[in-house]
Amino acid sequence: MPIKLVKQNLVYENRWLRLYNDEIEHPDGSAGTFSWVERNDGRGGAIALPQLPDGRVLLVKLHRYVPGRWSWEFPGGGVGTGESAEQSALRELEEETGLRGTGARSIGRYSSDSGFIAVHHTAVLVDLHGDAEQHLALDPQESIAEAKFVSPQQAWQMVGNGEIFDGTTITALGLLQVMNGRHDSDNPPGPAGARPEQVRAKLVYDSPWWRLYEDDVARPDGSQGIYVRVETTSGSGAIMVVPRTPSGKHLLIRTYRYPVKQELWEFPAGLVEVGEDPVNTATRELEEETSLVATSAKLIGTQFPVSGLMSDTFYTVLAEVQEIDESALTLQADEGIVGAKFVTLDDLRQMVRKNEIRDGVTLGVIARLLAAE
Questions:
Q1: pTM for this one?
Q2: Which range, of 86-90, 194-198, 206-210, averages the lowest pLDDT?
C-alpha cells in the first residue's frame, strides 16, 4: 500500500523551487511527515547529449557551487514554457556552447532522486555537424571553463576516476549506453574567477531530514546573486546498495515514492547517520528493508545525484548475499516497499530500454555496474 497524503504543507517557496513538509499516513496506519521538493514551474529538466557523427559526445566543465567542485557534465537546464524536452535541449546547448544541433530525440526520462525531488529529467540525444569542434563558444556566465569531445568509453573512464560525478550525467550516459547496446580522485581546478563564491550561507528551512539554504553569492562577473542548495541534516549523505547473489542476480525493490506519486523499481537506499560508515549504512538499510543479511560489502563508487542542488555525497555499495527466493524476504512496508525481485544484468538492460526503471539514482548505479563489466 502506498503512503497516503493527509495534508499538504508548503513550508517554503522561492522563484526556483517549493519545499513541502506534508502530513502523511504510513501503510500501517501510523501518522508521519514527508519532506520533498519540486521546481516552481513544475516543468522538469532536459539533458543534452551532443554527439558527433563519429560517436564522440560533448562534455562541459563547470564549477558546481553546491559540492564546491569542478564537474564534467552534459549541457542541460530547465524546460521552458511551451517547450518540448527536445527544444529545451537544443536551446540549452546553443546557449552554453554556441553549437546548433541538426536533430534531437529523447532516449529516456527519469527522476534524479525520487525519494525527495519531484523533478523529471529527459535525456535528449542531439546530432551535431562534423565540424562542431571548431565552433565552440562557451558561456562564462554559466561557470563553464572548458569543453571537450570524448568517446563513450573515455566518458566511462572519467566516471571511474571521479572526473564525472554528476548523477544526471552518469544516468544519461547509461541510457546512451543501453540505447547503443554497448556494454574521489583528482579534480583539476579551472581558471581563476570562473566560479561563484559564497558571500553568506543562509539557512531558510530545517527539518529532521533536510536543510534548505538560500546563499548570497558573488557571480563570476562580479554581480551578486542567490544560490539555493539542499543538504541532509546529518551532512553525511546517502547510500544505494546493490545486493548480488553468487549466481549473479541483483535484487530490486518496488517502492512507492511519495514526491512523484509512483511505484518505482530501485535498489535499496537510505540516509547515512552521523558518524556512520556508508558501507555499514548499506548493510543496515538492506537488512531493514528486505531482511537480507550481507555476507560482505564494499564501496564501488560515489556520485552527486543533482550536483546543482544537493551537496551531499551518495555512495554506491555492492553487497554479496546468499541465494534466496523473493517470497522469503520480509519487506519494510512502512517505507512503502511493495515488492521485490532478483534480476540479471541483461534483465536490467531490458528494464531500462523499456523505461521500467525511472529512478535516477538507480539508473546511475546500473550505469556504473554496466561500465564495470
A1: 0.64
A2: 194-198
